[in-house]
Design a protein that fits this description.
Two copies of one chain form a homodimer.
Chain A: E1 2-9, E2 15-19, E3 24-27, H1 44-64, E4 69-80, E5 88-99, H2 104-118, H3 120-125, E6 130-139
Parallel strand pairs in A: 5-6
Antiparallel strand pairs in A: 1-2, 2-3, 4-5
Helix pairs in contact in A: 1-2
């Protein structure tokens, strides 16, 4: 077992988390739960992590495939159950790849490799949620 | 479905994520994967979120139970599988409650309620990992 995070209460609902690599992440609730909105909502961070995890996979693979990517962003949508503990039941990941001469087959394959083999976050969350993906290729405005 | 996060590539491996509540979280890889360590590792954020999620539950319940908590922090350890996608297989949550006259039964019950009913992150990750918990009560040094 490895220590991954220590989170310390610093206010009504605000927690300062420090990760194993020394990075600090602030979390807080909204006024509806007595918080002051001074940080991200904790449960949102699972999808932040998912976005970064698959994003790093996909951009690495696209670079190996010599795709000229000039912009890359990922939108993640979630649907939660209505009953406690209100888990994500559906997660939709939309990859946006900007560049010149981007090969759709390369993008599709990169996403597939992340989803099925490399992305730890997708693998962890797929045990309790349906994870779907889509992608859009944007021509480089300067291309 | 609700948009939870948009993460945008800003460097070699650095992603800036903006959540639905407008909070920004930086993610990056280490030099081993071509990153510059300018943000948290994405997969660590799942346990950051877990810590904040259960932490907010537990402190709320302890306050309702009129416990005089003067300090509260949570350590989360993880064990990952050795093969891709290297998911967490074990997660250990250690709650530290500092205060005067803290009732162990109240702490135990608060943790149990979070684990079984309220904490979305524990519920999501328990589908693929064993989640265990423990707690320590620390006398208030000024109490």
């Amino acid at each position: 077992m490895q220590r991954i995070v220590t989170a310390r209460l610093q206010g009504s609902m605000r927690f300062e988390a420090t990760t194993r690599t020394g990075h600090v992440v602030m979390m807080d609730g909204g006024p509806d739960v007595g918080g002051e909105d001074a940080g991200a909502r904790p449960y949102d961070l699972l999808l932040v992590g998912l976005a970064g995890c698959t994003g790093m996979d996909v951009i690495s693979i696209l670079r190996k495939k010599r795709q000229r990517v000039t912009g890359f962003w990922i939108d993640v949508d979630g649907q939660r159950s209505s009953e406690h503990p209100k888990v994500y039941t559906q997660i939709a990941v939309h990859y946006h790849v900007q560049g010149t001469g981007i090969d759709p087959a390369a993008v599709e394959r990169a996403i597939q490799l992340s989803e099925t083999t490399y992305c730890s976050a997708i693998a962890s969350l797929r045990a309790s949620a349906t994870v779907s993906s889509a992608f859009t290729i944007h021509p480089d405005p300067e291309g």
